[in-house]
Automatic annotation (TrEMBL):
Residues 41-65 are annotated as: Disordered. It catalyses: ATP + H2O = ADP + phosphate + H(+). Pfam families: DEAD, Helicase_C. It comes from Anopheles darlingi (Mosquito). InterPro entries: DEAD/DEAH_box_helicase_dom, EIF4A_DEADc, Helicase_ATP-bd, Helicase_C-like, P-loop_NTPase, RNA-helicase_DEAD-box_CS, RNA_helicase_DEAD_Q_motif. Belongs to the DEAD box helicase family. eIF4A subfamily. This is Eukaryotic initiation factor 4A. A motif (Q motif) lies at residues 81-109. SUPFAM superfamilies: P-loop containing nucleoside triphosphate hydrolases (SSF52540).
Amino acid sequence: MVAWFDNSSEISFVATNGGHCREGATEPRRRYATNRVHRRRRLARTHTTMDDNRQEQQSHDGPAGMAPDGVIESNWSEAVENFDDMGLREELLRGIYAYGFEKPSAIQQRAITPCIAGRDVIAQAQSGTGKTATFSIAILQLIDTSLNECQALILAPTRELASQIQKVVISLGDFLKAQCHACIGGTNVRDDMRRLEQGCHIVVGTPGRVHDMISRNVLRTSNIKLFVLDEADEMLSRGFKDQIQDVFRKLPSDVQVILLSATMPADVLEVSQHFMRDPVKILVKKEELTLEGIKQFYVDVKFEDWKLGTLCDLYDTLSITQAVIFCNTRRKVDQLTEEMTEKTFTVSAMHGDMEQRDRDLIMKQFRTGSSRVLITTDLLARGIDVQQVSLVINYDLPTLRENYIHRIGRGGRFGRKGVAINFVTEQDKRVLADIEKHYNTSIEEMPANLADMI
Protein backbone atom coordinates (compact mmCIF):
# COMPACT_ATOMS: atom_id res chain seq x y z
CA MET A 1 0.00 0.00 0.00
CA VAL A 2 1.27 3.45 -0.89
CA ALA A 3 0.07 6.88 0.21
CA TRP A 4 1.30 10.38 -0.66
CA PHE A 5 0.02 13.55 1.00
CA ASP A 6 0.08 17.23 0.09
CA ASN A 7 0.54 19.02 3.41
CA SER A 8 3.28 21.57 4.06
CA SER A 9 6.61 20.22 5.36
CA GLU A 10 5.32 16.99 3.92
CA ILE A 11 6.24 13.56 5.09
CA SER A 12 4.57 10.70 3.30
CA PHE A 13 4.19 7.18 4.59
CA VAL A 14 4.67 4.11 2.45
CA ALA A 15 4.38 0.55 3.67
CA THR A 16 5.54 -2.03 1.16
CA ASN A 17 4.63 -5.69 1.01
CA GLY A 18 6.47 -8.61 -0.47
CA GLY A 19 9.50 -9.96 1.35
CA HIS A 20 12.94 -8.91 0.23
CA CYS A 21 15.84 -11.34 0.31
CA ARG A 22 18.68 -11.20 2.79
CA GLU A 23 22.27 -12.22 2.23
CA GLY A 24 22.67 -13.55 5.66
CA ALA A 25 24.53 12.45 35.15
CA THR A 26 24.75 14.01 37.94
CA GLU A 27 22.24 13.62 40.84
CA PRO A 28 20.40 16.94 40.24
CA ARG A 29 20.07 15.96 36.60
CA ARG A 30 18.76 12.54 37.59
CA ARG A 31 16.20 13.99 40.01
CA TYR A 32 15.02 16.44 37.35
CA ALA A 33 14.52 13.66 34.81
CA THR A 34 12.70 11.40 37.26
CA ASN A 35 10.42 14.21 38.37
CA ARG A 36 9.72 15.16 34.74
CA VAL A 37 8.43 11.63 33.97
CA HIS A 38 6.10 11.54 36.98
CA ARG A 39 5.01 15.17 36.56
CA ARG A 40 4.03 14.60 32.94
CA ARG A 41 2.01 11.53 33.88
CA ARG A 42 0.18 13.40 36.66
CA LEU A 43 -0.70 16.14 34.22
CA ALA A 44 -2.02 13.60 31.74
CA ARG A 45 -4.28 12.08 34.41
CA THR A 46 -5.62 15.31 35.92
CA HIS A 47 -5.70 17.46 32.77
CA THR A 48 -4.14 20.35 34.69
CA THR A 49 -1.43 22.75 33.60
CA MET A 50 1.73 23.95 35.29
CA ASP A 51 3.90 27.01 34.80
CA ASP A 52 7.28 25.53 33.92
CA ASN A 53 8.69 28.21 31.65
CA ARG A 54 12.24 27.87 32.90
CA GLN A 55 12.40 24.18 32.05
CA GLU A 56 10.43 24.60 28.83
CA GLN A 57 12.98 27.06 27.49
CA GLN A 58 15.59 24.31 27.62
CA SER A 59 13.52 21.70 25.82
CA HIS A 60 13.05 20.90 22.15
CA ASP A 61 9.47 21.03 20.88
CA GLY A 62 10.29 19.64 17.46
CA PRO A 63 11.44 21.62 14.43
CA ALA A 64 9.55 24.50 12.86
CA GLY A 65 7.29 23.39 10.05
CA MET A 66 7.21 19.84 11.42
CA ALA A 67 4.53 20.28 14.09
CA PRO A 68 2.67 17.10 15.06
CA ASP A 69 -0.74 18.29 13.87
CA GLY A 70 -1.52 18.29 10.17
CA VAL A 71 1.74 16.86 8.93
CA ILE A 72 0.61 13.39 7.89
CA GLU A 73 -2.70 11.72 7.25
CA SER A 74 -1.27 8.25 7.30
CA ASN A 75 -2.81 4.82 7.10
CA TRP A 76 -0.03 3.72 9.44
CA SER A 77 -1.87 3.41 12.73
CA GLU A 78 1.01 4.37 15.02
CA ALA A 79 1.67 8.11 15.13
CA VAL A 80 2.41 8.62 18.82
CA GLU A 81 2.44 12.26 19.93
CA ASN A 82 4.07 11.80 23.36
CA PHE A 83 7.10 9.84 24.49
CA ASP A 84 5.08 8.69 27.53
CA ASP A 85 2.71 6.79 25.23
CA MET A 86 5.39 4.81 23.37
CA GLY A 87 5.75 2.11 26.00
CA LEU A 88 9.35 3.08 26.71
CA ARG A 89 11.33 2.04 29.77
CA GLU A 90 11.14 4.39 32.75
CA GLU A 91 14.92 4.86 32.71
CA LEU A 92 14.86 5.69 29.01
CA LEU A 93 12.10 8.27 29.49
CA ARG A 94 14.18 9.89 32.20
CA GLY A 95 17.10 10.08 29.78
CA ILE A 96 14.92 11.58 27.03
CA TYR A 97 13.58 14.37 29.26
CA ALA A 98 16.96 15.00 30.88
CA TYR A 99 18.41 15.45 27.39
CA GLY A 100 15.93 18.27 26.80
CA PHE A 101 13.28 16.70 24.60
CA GLU A 102 9.68 17.61 25.37
CA LYS A 103 7.64 16.09 22.54
CA PRO A 104 8.68 13.81 19.67
CA SER A 105 9.20 15.40 16.27
CA ALA A 106 7.17 14.20 13.28
CA ILE A 107 9.71 11.56 12.25
CA GLN A 108 10.04 10.35 15.85
CA GLN A 109 6.26 10.05 16.24
CA ARG A 110 6.08 7.72 13.26
CA ALA A 111 9.39 5.87 13.15
CA ILE A 112 10.12 4.95 16.78
CA THR A 113 7.08 2.68 17.13
CA PRO A 114 7.81 0.37 14.16
CA CYS A 115 11.49 0.33 15.11
CA ILE A 116 10.80 -0.93 18.63
CA ALA A 117 8.25 -3.37 17.20
CA GLY A 118 11.10 -5.06 15.32
CA ARG A 119 10.23 -3.87 11.80
CA ASP A 120 12.83 -3.00 9.19
CA VAL A 121 12.48 0.75 8.63
CA ILE A 122 13.57 3.26 6.00
CA ALA A 123 13.08 6.72 7.53
CA GLN A 124 13.73 9.97 5.73
CA ALA A 125 13.35 13.46 7.14
CA GLN A 126 15.02 16.83 6.90
CA SER A 127 18.22 17.61 8.76
CA GLY A 128 17.59 18.75 12.31
CA THR A 129 14.35 16.80 12.76
CA GLY A 130 15.70 14.23 15.19
CA LYS A 131 16.71 11.21 13.11
CA THR A 132 19.63 10.34 15.41
CA ALA A 133 17.40 10.32 18.48
CA THR A 134 14.88 8.18 16.58
CA PHE A 135 17.13 5.17 16.18
CA SER A 136 18.98 5.82 19.46
CA ILE A 137 15.72 5.59 21.43
CA ALA A 138 14.72 2.41 19.59
CA ILE A 139 18.09 0.79 20.28
CA LEU A 140 18.06 1.72 23.96
CA GLN A 141 14.56 0.30 24.32
CA LEU A 142 15.50 -3.03 22.76
CA ILE A 143 18.94 -3.88 24.15
CA ASP A 144 19.53 -5.98 27.27
CA THR A 145 22.01 -4.04 29.40
CA SER A 146 22.63 -7.08 31.61
CA LEU A 147 24.28 -8.75 28.59
CA ASN A 148 27.76 -7.29 28.11
CA GLU A 149 27.85 -7.94 24.36
CA CYS A 150 27.36 -5.78 21.29
CA GLN A 151 23.65 -5.85 20.45
CA ALA A 152 23.38 -2.86 18.09
CA LEU A 153 25.73 -1.72 15.33
CA ILE A 154 25.47 1.77 13.81
CA LEU A 155 27.44 2.81 10.73
CA ALA A 156 28.01 6.47 9.82
CA PRO A 157 29.91 8.02 6.90
CA THR A 158 32.27 10.24 8.92
CA ARG A 159 34.22 10.03 12.16
CA GLU A 160 32.68 13.24 13.43
CA LEU A 161 29.13 12.00 12.89
CA ALA A 162 29.93 8.66 14.55
CA SER A 163 31.36 10.48 17.58
CA GLN A 164 28.30 12.70 17.77
CA ILE A 165 25.95 9.70 17.63
CA GLN A 166 27.92 8.11 20.47
CA LYS A 167 27.37 11.22 22.63
CA VAL A 168 23.62 11.19 21.93
CA VAL A 169 23.30 7.47 22.73
CA ILE A 170 25.27 7.82 25.97
CA SER A 171 23.20 10.83 27.07
CA LEU A 172 19.84 9.25 26.29
CA GLY A 173 20.93 5.94 27.84
CA ASP A 174 22.47 7.48 30.96
CA PHE A 175 19.93 6.03 33.40
CA LEU A 176 20.12 2.62 31.70
CA LYS A 177 23.90 2.60 32.12
CA ALA A 178 24.18 1.71 28.43
CA GLN A 179 27.73 1.37 27.12
CA CYS A 180 28.44 2.76 23.63
CA HIS A 181 31.83 2.75 21.90
CA ALA A 182 32.85 4.83 18.87
CA CYS A 183 34.90 2.67 16.52
CA ILE A 184 36.45 5.12 14.06
CA GLY A 185 39.52 5.55 11.91
CA GLY A 186 42.28 7.88 12.99
CA THR A 187 42.34 6.47 16.52
CA ASN A 188 44.58 3.83 18.07
CA VAL A 189 43.63 0.36 16.84
CA ARG A 190 44.82 -1.32 20.03
CA ASP A 191 42.64 0.97 22.14
CA ASP A 192 39.67 -0.04 19.98
CA MET A 193 40.50 -3.72 20.37
CA ARG A 194 40.91 -3.41 24.13
CA ARG A 195 37.59 -1.61 24.54
CA LEU A 196 35.69 -4.06 22.34
CA GLU A 197 37.17 -7.05 24.15
CA GLN A 198 35.87 -5.60 27.42
CA GLY A 199 32.39 -5.59 25.90
CA CYS A 200 29.83 -2.86 25.21
CA HIS A 201 26.15 -2.82 24.30
CA ILE A 202 26.30 -0.53 21.25
CA VAL A 203 29.00 0.14 18.68
CA VAL A 204 28.89 3.13 16.33
CA GLY A 205 31.59 3.62 13.76
CA THR A 206 32.81 4.22 10.26
CA PRO A 207 32.61 1.28 7.84
CA GLY A 208 36.35 0.76 7.43
CA ARG A 209 37.24 0.49 11.11
CA VAL A 210 34.14 -1.56 11.96
CA HIS A 211 34.92 -3.99 9.13
CA ASP A 212 38.50 -4.27 10.40
CA MET A 213 37.39 -5.03 13.96
CA ILE A 214 34.98 -7.70 12.75
CA SER A 215 37.69 -9.25 10.56
CA ARG A 216 40.00 -9.43 13.60
CA ASN A 217 37.21 -11.22 15.53
CA VAL A 218 37.36 -8.47 18.15
CA LEU A 219 33.91 -7.11 17.42
CA ARG A 220 31.65 -10.09 18.04
CA THR A 221 28.48 -10.04 15.94
CA SER A 222 26.51 -13.07 17.16
CA ASN A 223 24.34 -11.00 19.54
CA ILE A 224 23.72 -8.04 17.22
CA LYS A 225 20.00 -7.62 16.66
CA LEU A 226 19.88 -4.08 15.21
CA PHE A 227 21.90 -2.74 12.27
CA VAL A 228 21.58 0.99 11.57
CA LEU A 229 22.85 2.88 8.53
CA ASP A 230 22.82 6.60 9.24
CA GLU A 231 23.01 8.90 6.20
CA ALA A 232 22.26 5.84 4.10
CA ASP A 233 22.44 7.61 0.74
CA GLU A 234 26.04 8.61 1.38
CA MET A 235 26.90 5.18 2.75
CA LEU A 236 25.36 3.07 0.01
CA SER A 237 25.72 5.17 -3.12
CA ARG A 238 29.40 5.98 -2.75
CA GLY A 239 32.59 4.26 -1.67
CA PHE A 240 31.31 2.42 1.40
CA LYS A 241 28.94 0.08 -0.41
CA ASP A 242 31.23 -2.97 -0.53
CA GLN A 243 32.34 -2.60 3.10
CA ILE A 244 28.75 -2.31 4.28
CA GLN A 245 27.79 -5.47 2.41
CA ASP A 246 30.79 -7.30 3.90
CA VAL A 247 29.76 -6.20 7.40
CA PHE A 248 26.16 -7.22 6.77
CA ARG A 249 27.19 -10.75 5.77
CA LYS A 250 28.75 -11.20 9.21
CA LEU A 251 25.54 -10.33 11.05
CA PRO A 252 22.82 -12.77 12.19
CA SER A 253 20.33 -13.61 9.46
CA ASP A 254 17.42 -12.17 11.45
CA VAL A 255 19.05 -8.82 12.20
CA GLN A 256 16.72 -5.82 12.12
CA VAL A 257 17.82 -3.11 9.65
CA ILE A 258 17.14 0.64 9.97
CA LEU A 259 18.16 3.15 7.29
CA LEU A 260 17.99 6.90 7.87
CA SER A 261 18.87 9.87 5.70
CA ALA A 262 17.79 13.32 4.56
CA THR A 263 17.77 12.21 0.92
CA MET A 264 17.01 8.76 -0.47
CA PRO A 265 17.72 8.40 -4.22
CA ALA A 266 16.04 5.59 -6.11
CA ASP A 267 19.27 3.61 -6.46
CA VAL A 268 19.67 3.53 -2.67
CA LEU A 269 16.15 2.19 -2.24
CA GLU A 270 16.95 -0.46 -4.82
CA VAL A 271 20.14 -1.51 -3.04
CA SER A 272 18.31 -1.63 0.29
CA GLN A 273 16.00 -4.31 -1.05
CA HIS A 274 18.84 -6.82 -0.85
CA PHE A 275 19.07 -6.70 2.94
CA MET A 276 15.70 -5.46 4.17
CA ARG A 277 12.49 -7.45 4.62
CA ASP A 278 9.10 -5.84 4.14
CA PRO A 279 10.32 -2.45 5.38
CA VAL A 280 8.16 0.34 6.68
CA LYS A 281 9.04 3.44 4.64
CA ILE A 282 8.57 6.94 5.96
CA LEU A 283 9.58 9.28 3.16
CA VAL A 284 9.69 12.99 2.40
CA LYS A 285 8.77 14.03 -1.11
CA LYS A 286 11.70 15.46 -3.06
CA GLU A 287 10.08 18.84 -3.58
CA GLU A 288 9.57 19.24 0.19
CA LEU A 289 13.20 18.62 1.15
CA THR A 290 14.44 22.20 1.34
CA LEU A 291 14.60 23.13 4.99
CA GLU A 292 11.80 25.05 6.65
CA GLY A 293 13.13 28.23 8.25
CA ILE A 294 16.28 28.49 6.12
CA LYS A 295 16.42 31.67 4.03
CA GLN A 296 18.35 30.97 0.82
CA PHE A 297 20.16 33.61 -1.21
CA TYR A 298 22.77 33.86 -3.95
CA VAL A 299 25.51 36.38 -4.72
CA ASP A 300 26.43 36.88 -8.37
CA VAL A 301 30.24 36.97 -8.15
CA LYS A 302 30.68 36.72 -11.94
CA PHE A 303 34.15 35.16 -11.80
CA GLU A 304 35.95 32.69 -9.51
CA ASP A 305 38.60 35.30 -8.62
CA TRP A 306 35.93 37.62 -7.20
CA LYS A 307 34.78 35.15 -4.53
CA LEU A 308 37.54 35.99 -2.04
CA GLY A 309 36.82 39.71 -2.04
CA THR A 310 33.11 39.04 -1.63
CA LEU A 311 33.78 36.78 1.35
CA CYS A 312 36.02 39.39 2.97
CA ASP A 313 33.26 41.98 2.55
CA LEU A 314 30.88 39.63 4.36
CA TYR A 315 33.26 38.76 7.21
CA ASP A 316 31.85 41.25 9.73
CA THR A 317 28.44 39.66 9.20
CA LEU A 318 29.88 36.14 9.55
CA SER A 319 31.64 36.86 12.81
CA ILE A 320 28.55 38.14 14.65
CA THR A 321 27.25 34.59 14.61
CA GLN A 322 28.81 31.22 13.80
CA ALA A 323 29.24 30.40 10.15
CA VAL A 324 30.30 27.43 8.04
CA ILE A 325 31.89 27.98 4.62
CA PHE A 326 31.83 25.04 2.21
CA CYS A 327 34.40 24.40 -0.52
CA ASN A 328 34.38 21.44 -2.89
CA THR A 329 37.99 20.31 -2.41
CA ARG A 330 40.47 19.99 0.45
CA ARG A 331 42.96 22.02 -1.56
CA LYS A 332 40.46 24.88 -1.87
CA VAL A 333 39.85 24.78 1.90
CA ASP A 334 43.58 25.13 2.59
CA GLN A 335 43.98 27.85 -0.04
CA LEU A 336 41.03 29.91 1.18
CA THR A 337 42.10 29.55 4.82
CA GLU A 338 45.60 30.76 3.97
CA GLU A 339 44.29 33.72 1.96
CA MET A 340 41.85 34.78 4.70
CA THR A 341 44.54 34.47 7.37
CA GLU A 342 46.95 36.57 5.30
CA LYS A 343 44.27 39.28 5.23
CA THR A 344 44.13 39.06 9.08
CA PHE A 345 40.69 37.43 9.19
CA THR A 346 40.26 34.80 11.90
CA VAL A 347 39.07 31.48 10.48
CA SER A 348 39.57 27.78 11.16
CA ALA A 349 39.57 24.88 8.73
CA MET A 350 38.81 21.17 8.73
CA HIS A 351 38.93 18.42 6.12
CA GLY A 352 39.64 14.72 5.76
CA ASP A 353 43.40 15.01 5.22
CA MET A 354 43.92 16.33 8.73
CA GLU A 355 44.97 14.18 11.66
CA GLN A 356 42.06 12.99 13.77
CA ARG A 357 43.31 14.79 16.89
CA ASP A 358 43.49 18.07 14.95
CA ARG A 359 39.97 17.56 13.60
CA ASP A 360 38.68 16.82 17.11
CA LEU A 361 40.32 19.97 18.50
CA ILE A 362 38.94 22.19 15.72
CA MET A 363 35.47 20.70 16.15
CA LYS A 364 35.61 21.24 19.93
CA GLN A 365 36.65 24.88 19.46
CA PHE A 366 33.81 25.43 17.01
CA ARG A 367 31.20 23.77 19.23
CA THR A 368 32.24 25.87 22.24
CA GLY A 369 32.23 29.08 20.20
CA SER A 370 35.92 29.91 20.58
CA SER A 371 36.08 29.50 16.80
CA ARG A 372 33.33 31.30 14.90
CA VAL A 373 34.04 30.83 11.18
CA LEU A 374 34.82 27.33 9.90
CA ILE A 375 35.92 26.50 6.36
CA THR A 376 35.37 22.86 5.40
CA THR A 377 34.42 20.33 2.75
CA ASP A 378 31.33 18.13 2.67
CA LEU A 379 32.93 16.25 5.56
CA LEU A 380 30.90 18.54 7.84
CA ALA A 381 27.77 18.55 5.71
CA ARG A 382 26.30 15.33 7.06
CA GLY A 383 24.63 15.37 10.43
CA ILE A 384 27.08 17.44 12.44
CA ASP A 385 24.94 19.27 14.98
CA VAL A 386 26.31 22.66 16.04
CA GLN A 387 23.29 24.49 17.41
CA GLN A 388 24.80 27.99 17.23
CA VAL A 389 25.38 27.94 13.46
CA SER A 390 22.96 30.31 11.75
CA LEU A 391 24.83 31.10 8.52
CA VAL A 392 26.12 28.79 5.79
CA ILE A 393 28.06 29.96 2.74
CA ASN A 394 28.50 27.75 -0.30
CA TYR A 395 31.77 29.24 -1.52
CA ASP A 396 31.48 26.52 -4.17
CA LEU A 397 28.11 25.08 -5.12
CA PRO A 398 28.06 21.36 -4.31
CA THR A 399 29.01 18.99 -7.13
CA LEU A 400 26.18 16.67 -6.03
CA ARG A 401 22.84 18.47 -5.73
CA GLU A 402 21.81 16.00 -2.99
CA ASN A 403 24.52 17.55 -0.79
CA TYR A 404 22.89 20.97 -0.97
CA ILE A 405 20.31 20.11 1.67
CA HIS A 406 22.96 18.61 3.95
CA ARG A 407 25.05 21.76 3.71
CA ILE A 408 22.35 24.34 4.31
CA GLY A 409 20.93 22.19 7.10
CA ARG A 410 23.88 23.19 9.27
CA GLY A 411 22.25 26.61 9.56
CA GLY A 412 18.89 25.67 11.07
CA ARG A 413 19.07 22.82 13.56
CA PHE A 414 15.83 21.77 15.29
CA GLY A 415 13.79 24.50 13.70
CA ARG A 416 16.13 27.38 14.46
CA LYS A 417 16.21 30.09 11.81
CA GLY A 418 19.17 30.21 9.46
CA VAL A 419 20.55 31.77 6.31
CA ALA A 420 22.31 30.10 3.36
CA ILE A 421 24.30 32.14 0.82
CA ASN A 422 25.48 30.69 -2.48
CA PHE A 423 28.39 32.23 -4.39
CA VAL A 424 27.50 31.90 -8.08
CA THR A 425 29.78 32.51 -11.07
CA GLU A 426 28.52 32.73 -14.63
CA GLN A 427 29.29 29.02 -15.05
CA ASP A 428 27.39 28.19 -11.84
CA LYS A 429 24.07 29.70 -12.88
CA ARG A 430 22.95 26.51 -14.59
CA VAL A 431 23.85 24.50 -11.47
CA LEU A 432 21.87 26.89 -9.26
CA ALA A 433 18.87 26.58 -11.56
CA ASP A 434 19.14 22.79 -11.34
CA ILE A 435 19.13 22.96 -7.53
CA GLU A 436 16.06 25.21 -7.57
CA LYS A 437 14.26 22.82 -9.90
CA HIS A 438 15.28 19.70 -7.97
CA TYR A 439 14.02 21.04 -4.63
CA ASN A 440 11.17 23.12 -6.08
CA THR A 441 12.49 26.21 -4.34
CA SER A 442 13.37 29.79 -5.21
CA ILE A 443 16.78 31.22 -4.26
CA GLU A 444 16.71 35.02 -4.27
CA GLU A 445 19.56 37.51 -4.66
CA MET A 446 21.14 38.44 -1.32
CA PRO A 447 19.60 41.61 0.18
CA ALA A 448 21.58 44.50 1.62
CA ASN A 449 20.16 43.98 5.14
CA LEU A 450 21.54 40.45 5.54
CA ALA A 451 22.81 41.08 9.08
CA ASP A 452 19.25 41.78 10.25
CA MET A 453 18.21 38.25 9.25
CA ILE A 454 20.81 36.39 11.29
